Amino acid sequence: MHMKLILSLALAIGLSACSKPVEDTRPGQPVKTRQTAFKEMLRVFEPMGTMLRTGKYHAEKFAVMAIELNAKRDAPWTHFGPDTNYPPTKAKPEVWEKSAEFEKAREGFFKSTDALLIAAQAKELKGVTDAYAKVVDDCQSCHQTFKKK
Ligand code: HEC
Residue 9: what are its φ and ψ, rounded to 5°? Predict the structure, then answer.
């Protein structure tokens, strides 16, 4: 069993309880919109990990969730426009300063979620577990460089 799956996902990818909410008052609320999009992703992604961690892998349900995750993964990125680094964002300035690297991290994440979908459709626990752990790595490594705790 992967360590990553034993650790709580929130801990592994560096999510903390929300501090005092600051309202996003800009038109279109780009910060709030992208944060909500990430939370929507987490809402599918976390139960997938719970299924694996608790030994309750259900191949059909997992495959449906993998499709759902891939449908949600597109949403956050277009809301990182120039000039959207303001409270309540948790993004680091590196998102804009190292935009090529940020884009690379996003592409890596798309690859690992593609692979997770393929593994989910092959319906083998070992492959699914490895592919899930790789996606956790990609959430985590992007957060380390580009997201404040
Ligand atoms: C390419 C970089 C990148 C990848 C990959 C990534 N994230 Fe994030 N994530 C961010 C950034 C940057 C923010 C901060 C957004 C903001 O506050 O403006 C964030 C914010 C979040 C938030 C909102 C936190 C909060 O308190 O508002 C959640 C939840 C989250 N990510 C979950 C995930 C999960 C789960 C994955 C993997 C399935 C993932 N992220 C993959 C960069 C990434």
Answer: -60, -40
- Record the pTM: 0.94
> Is residue 38 in contact with ligand 1, taking CB distance under 6 Å?
yes
Residue nearest to atom 38 of ligand 1 (CA): 139
User: Of 3.40.50.1370, 1.20.1250.20, 1.10.357.140, 1.20.120.10, which CATH number belongs to 30-78+89-146?
Assistant: 1.20.120.10
The domain segmentation of the chain, as residue ranges, is: 30-78+89-146
Q: Which of the listed residues 69, 109, 147, 149 should we mutate to test ligand 1's pocket, taking the one with most ligand atoms within 8 A of CB?
A: 147
User: What pLDDT does 2 receive?
Assistant: 66
pLDDT digits (tens, 9 = 90+) for 63-100: 999 999 999 999 999 999 999 999 999 999 999 999 99
